[in-house]
Amino acid sequence: MNALSPSRPSLSHVTDWVFDLDNTLYPRSCNLFAQIDVRITHYVMGLTQLAFEEARDLQKTYYRDFGTTLNGLMHQHKVDPDHFLETVHAIDYSPVAPHPDLVQVIRELPGRKFILTNGDTGHARAVLAKLGGADLFEHVHDIRAMTFVPKPHKAAYDGFFARHDIDPAKAVMFDDLEKNLVVPHEVGMATVQVVAGPDFAHEQVEAWELGRASGPHVHHVTDDLARFLRERP
Hints:
- This protein folds into 2 domains: about 1-25 and about 95-230, Rossmann fold (3-Layer(aba) Sandwich); about 35-90, DNA polymerase, domain 1.
- It has 9 helices and 7 strands; from the N terminus they run ββαααααβαβαβαββα.
- It is an alpha/beta fold.
- Helix content is about 40%, strand content about 10%.
- It is globular.
- It has helices at about 30-50, 50-65, 70-75, 80-90, 100-105, 120-130, 155-165, 180-185, 225-230; strands at about 1-5, 15-20, 110-115, 140, 170-175, 190-195, 220.
């Protein structure tokens, strides 16, 4: 599915291609992030001594209100971000399958390619190695480079633009969460929401995480990133 209104901007002007990582460069259906999600819940349990369901509710509240659970935990519980990231990314990456078609179409895009992720660089590199695109991106701008202020906060994007001399008017942002496309739209980027297939459901995923927005900040929607890039407007 590639949704495009005639009023939506084309991508013919784009010179900088900016991709989220989790549930964007690999399909949500492989459930890689579900592993991280459970590890985050157990981290919150150990920190707060809450039972699983209560810890999970708190985790999702922080995720929704602070951009990441980590940001909420840093604000409310003064956690060590490095310890958190090392703990929650100790996962099995085997569910991420090689995706040569996606790697090839990204490689052929005209211009620079970046990852802008609320995860860390080690996690991103592990995912890219499984996809077969270890050398695909010019830079991974991770949560540490954001000084732990994550998307969707404007500071996360401003620091990224400044570090890499990016003109938002010549760039596009791909992300699975529509809230992470609000600032890119406001500063002049083209935006693409990468969504799960229509039949995807998972007990660990809240409804708002799967929401498909129709607001002005989402210019394009696709559930097949490789196809979208191949047929890009």
